[in-house]
Design brief:
0% of the residues lie in helices and 54% in strands. It has no helices and 14 strands. Strand 4 (34-40) and strand 5 (49-55) form a beta hairpin.
């Protein structure tokens, strides 16, 4: 739905297929439309996949893409980068036996620029991200009961990663 500040409905629209769809993040596009990020099991490679939808300013579907493998992908968020590209992130179960960090940098048309993942036997998922003034990316990662920060350059290469292990459960 698009609403006025007085909560009047400007338009209302649904998207998706016969399965489960869920949106977790919305950001504005440079052309006045929006990107909607979430998950789908109606489309894609299997189980649930990342789902990125681009709509026009009036709510009309422009395009959508799915990302992921045959296992489940869990979306956590989306960041619109300073150059208009997007970083979508969460975790994937498609690579190894665990829940692995998963981020994808995509162009404004939904095409993949690069994918980032770390295979591990446990559970690691990207909870949040930010872009530095230099264009690098910092990922906030939950690692089992601890926390981790990962800094990537604009090409998706790891610059550094630090795990913070504290007493007790950290989320």
């Amino acid at each position: 739905m698009k609403l006025t500040l007085d909560s009047d409905v400007l338009w209302e629209q649904t998207w998706g297929g016969d399965g489960y769809e869920q949106a977790v993040s919305v950001v504005l596009a440079e052309d006045g439309g929006s990107y909607i990020f979430g998950e789908t099991d109606s489309y894609g490679a299997g189980n649930r996949d990342f789902f990125l939808l681009k709509i026009t300013e009036d709510g009309t579907e422009d395009w959508f893409e799915t990302y992921g493998g045959t296992g489940r992908e869990w979306p956590y968020g989306m960041l619109r980068l300073s150059n208009g590209e997007l970083l979508i992130y969460g975790f994937t179960e498609s690579i190894g036996g665990g829940r692995d960090e998963y981020a994808i940098r995509v162009a404004q048309d939904g095409n993949i620029i690069w994918e980032y993942t770390v295979e591990n036997p446990g559970e690691e998922f990207i909870m949040d991200a930010l872009e530095t003034a230099e264009g690098d990316l910092v990922l906030a990662v939950s690692v089992e009961e601890d926390g981790k920060l990962v800094k990537l350059d604009a090409d998706g290469s790891i610059l550094w990663a630090y795990t913070y292990e504290l007493a007790g459960w950290q989320y």
